[in-house]
């Protein structure tokens, strides 16, 4: 990466590098997950510091080494103060950030996932939002996340009058057979899944959709697919 490269990017993570530099992980529209060095960004007079906060959507210019380029310019387009300044909302963002960090390889474009990230941030930044709404929004993101990565939850037509199971090895809901790891679920959990999948973020706010069992199922399902625990879930 000798010449300058420009991206629309979301700041996912910051990591100290020496006394004054940082490694910033971005998720970009053009190239998926990218890491770059922010020179002297920890210094009090750094112009980069104010533009490189977690969650910011920014215009990013990189140059230098292809393995770890340097940030040349950055301009924040969107910040999300209602998330950053609210200790009840920010844990939901950290779950999303951890999912992206653990599930995506470097430099693999996924426009669908970038769009899902941006939509979730817009939703979570809504001026008035309840903790239950935020949890429903997180589950909506998880469904979009699994779809974007290609291991979306299997959902066959089910007779709600008969037992319904969920199996990680099968890949979702199942009724006509019972895999070794199947868990019996309530019929309203499948109904919740179908409803949430078809809802927009604007429809989630103020809804009375019960998602407790579905949240546990999706967390287990994603951890199974990634073969990694999502540690930030315990703070939600």
Word description of this protein:
The chain has 236 residues and is α+β, with helices and mostly antiparallel strands. It has two domains: 5-79, Beta Barrel (OB fold (Dihydrolipoamide Acetyltransferase, E2P)); 82-235, Recombination protein O, C-terminal domain (de novo design (two linked rop proteins)). The protein contains seven helices and eight strands; from the N terminus they run E-E-E-E-E-H-H-H-H-E-E-E-H-H-H. It has helices at residues 81-84, 90-103, 111-124, 131-149, 187-198, 201-204, 212-226; strands spanning 5-17, 21-28, 32-38, 57-63, 70-78, 164-167, 172-174, 183-185. The strands form two sheets. Strands 3-2-1-4-5 form a five-stranded antiparallel sheet. Helix 2 packs parallel to helix 4 (131-149), helix 3 (111-124) runs antiparallel to helix 4 and helix 4 runs parallel beside helix 7 (212-226). The longest helix has 19 residues, at 131-149. The two termini are 39 Å apart.
